[in-house]
Specification:
Elements (H helix, E strand, L loop, with lengths): L3 H12 L12 H21 L10 E6 L5 E2 L12 E7 L9 E2 L2 E3 H9 L9 E5 L3 E6 L2 E2 L4 E6 L22 H24 L2 H15 L1
Parallel strand pairs: 5-6
Antiparallel strand pairs: 1-9, 2-7, 3-4, 3-9, 6-7, 7-8
Helix pairs in contact: 1-2, 1-4, 2-4
């Protein structure tokens, strides 16, 4: 595994032939954005073909529980919440309180599950997900305090609470995927970026000017 900066500078180094300058057509910020986007894309492809996700892809995001819902970081869009490994709850009144794993249900399924005679322990806590919010319920009521830990595969790993910085935190990707990601970014994304840059109006004007000078 490697840090985000190590992955970024490796890609930049390969693209620029070992000569890194301030006049580069592609910035480190652009490459980092490509890394996040390509990682999510590759994960969707890999899991669709039946492969399982490795432990190295998961991160833990810690959030405070609120009755108005918890804004959680976007997760990779697998079907049936497969990007979420677990959601655990701890009572905020005690630091030594143990974590309680919560069953996770979609918001539109929550009422059906609560009313089902096959649902056991309906009074216990459970997590309910909407596209933008996470709620913790206990029976029919919302829990308004405490801490949750979501273990999941996030779209942007740098926004997760357990992420320290681009220099020291290991980027959540397996070695197998990292190799593919590097090749895909260099062979597709950056090539496309260079082609777009070469066809900008300024470059076209420069080409016409140079052509005219040659004719003169």
């Amino acid at each position: 595994m490697a840090t985000l900066n190590e992955i970024t500078y490796n890609i930049k180094n390969i693209v620029e032939g070992g000569v890194v300058s301030d006049d580069s057509n592609v910035s480190t910020r652009q490459i980092k954005y490509m890394i996040h986007a390509k990682r999510a894309e590759l994960l969707l492809k890999y899991t669709d073909s039946g492969r399982k996700t490795s432990e190295s892809l998961y991160q833990i995001d810690v959030r405070s529980v609120s009755s108005v819902g918890i804004d959680y970081n976007r997760i990779v869009g697998f079907n049936n919440n497969r990007a979420i490994r677990s959601i655990a709850y701890r009572d905020g009144s005690s630091v030594d309180a143990s974590m309680e794993l919560l069953p996770v249900v979609q918001d539109h399924d929550r009422m059906f599950i609560q009313q089902s005679k096959f649902m056991r322990n309906v009074a216990k806590k459970h997590a309910s997900l909407t596209p933008n919010k996470l709620y913790v319920f206990e029976g029919d009521g919302l829990v308004s305090d405490g801490i949750i830990e979501m273990k999941a595969i996030f779209e942007d790993p740098t926004q997760v609470s357990s992420y320290v910085d681009d220099d020291t935190t290991q980027y959540p990707i397996s070695n197998e995927l990292l190799s593919v990601l590097t090749q895909e970014i260099i062979g597709k994304e950056i090539v496309m970026l260079y082609n777009l840059s070469a066809n900008t109006p300024n470059n076209q004007t420069d080409e016409k000017t140079q052509s005219k000078k040659v004719q003169e």
